[in-house]
Amino acid sequence: MRHFLSLLLVIIGLQLSIQSIGRRSERSASRPYISVLTVTNGKWFGSWGEVEMCPRGTYAAGFSLKVDKPSSGDNKGLTGIRLHCISPLRALLDLHDDYSSVRSEVGSWGEWTEIKWCPCCFLTAFKLRVESYQGFGDDTAANNIRFKCSQETELEGKGTSWGEWGGWSQKCERGGICGIKTQVEGPQGNGDDTALNDVIMYCCD
What we know:
The protein has 205 residues and is mainly β. The protein has a single domain, classed as Vitelline Membrane Outer Layer Protein I, subunit A. The protein contains two helices and 14 strands. The protein has helices at 2-23, 88-92, and strands at residues 35-37, 47-48, 52-53, 59-67, 78-86, 100-102, 111-112, 116-117, 123-130, 142-149, 154-156, 164-165, 176-184, 196-204. The strands form three sheets. Strands 1, 2, 3, 13 and 14 form a five-stranded antiparallel sheet that branches. Strands 4, 5, 6, 7 and 8 form a five-stranded antiparallel sheet that branches. It has a four-stranded antiparallel sheet with strand order 11-10-9-12, with no helix packed on it. The longest helix has 22 residues, at 2-23. InterPro entries: VOMI, VOMI_sf. This is Vitelline membrane outer layer 1-like protein. Keywords: Signal. Residues 1-17 form the signal peptide.
């Protein structure tokens, strides 16, 4: 009986460990992709981060944003994007309890919003809300993002309202979005901070 209880505790521990792994960030930069999605209204401040890919066999079915809340000081708007990746079977069954999260470069300001999930399957296209260059004013660059899902459902993030929506990116013709790369401006000291400026998404079979 004691041996059985010990074995049961080991199995439960392994299950909890697997679940924890499924929710942590995992990098799979060597994963092959079939196409690249871009938009034309991104800004130019900052530098590009590393490409971060969903683990092989999974695709982005949801996302969350890191957002700097509007204030009377130097506003940054959108500061980061996370993709949340699941397997095709879990997407078809609408099961989002076991996922991996990936992100590229992220600004140091703001808080993460809750995850928004596609009602079916995967993210397939995106557009950005971007504020135009303000000159001597307060620049925020990217402020929000919208995604299309496999069945054309649209999801909008809880970003800020500055700027205008640009056009849609290209669409994943097969599979779904599986990776991300972001352009982020770091802290400028006494200068004007903008954080996230542009993003590239990747499609996998």
